[in-house]
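Note to self: keep these together.
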Amino acid sequence: MDVSRRAKRPIQSQDEATIASKGAGSQRHKNKQNIDYVWRSGLAGGLAGCAAKTVVGPLDRVKILFQASNPQFAKYTGSWFGVVTAMHDINRQDGVRGLFRGHSATLLRIFPYAAIKFVAYEQVRSILIPSPAQETVLRRLLSGSLAGMTSVFLTYPLEVIRVRLAFETNKDSQSSLKRICSQIYNEHPTPAATTARISIPVSNVAIAASTPKSGLVNFYRGFSPTLVGMLPYAGMSFLTHDTATDLLRLPFLAPYTTTPSPRRSHNPSAPPILKYWAEFLAGGFAGLISQTASYPLEVIRRRMQVGGAVGNGHRLGMAETAQRVWRERGWRGFFVGLSIGYIKVVPMAAISFFVYERMKVVLGV
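Structure:
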């Protein structure tokens, strides 16, 4: 009797473990739609974005000045030495605060942006990839792209404000969030510049009716290339990161790339945690690939965003902006500042993914 009971115990234990494992998997999937999971992953994503942006803040300022062809800094473009010289001139003219001009708007925007992006990715991924058997490259790419498009749609006005603050170089002008917001809101396109390009006679009334003079629409300048650019940028970023982490966890690499500590106690089936250098490597590689794929669209977007700060105020469309960039510098114009982009995005992506993954462990996500 006792022998038979002892013999059955292992079988019963295995069955219970299987049921518990399935139940845990179902609970984990369910928890992704739970408000507790959402706010914890959102907090982790927001902190990750702020940490990454703060580290590369000075480089971001210089890159915006180069991309938008600021007249004062156009002479520095095209070389690594120009980046250093531009940063030195900004520091000499405005001090360290000049290198972080617009950074308050950056943090104001990046926290909700990064939080929404990571939360949206987790949510969309759980819908498109409900099980490992359905995980494909296309589904991963689509999950990242939709997450990026969602976050940028909800936070884009803050991005326009940040870029305009960073574009300011006049020391005498007192840049402030209130002044910049008021300036953007009240900017008017010039009908004369538009009619000069149209061969068919069109009345100023018709032009004014089809083109908003001012208002909230000004905060969405460059939105169309941003949405298009998010397809390769966010999509390739998440796809590359997830693929790289999968490769680094392969059995023959795991002893060198993963920590010997036990897996997350709240989720026993979660993959082992990567070592610091491995997580930085995966994130940095993701930044490199995504930046290269989306950079021409980013240049177009920056030029559209500062349209009211330079020139005659004519609101350029995406195609018209691309033509102007091509006429000015040819194909190289679409990659102005790419070297700064690599210096900025590679460590930024590495820090962002690293902080996010570590904060998920700390917050029990």
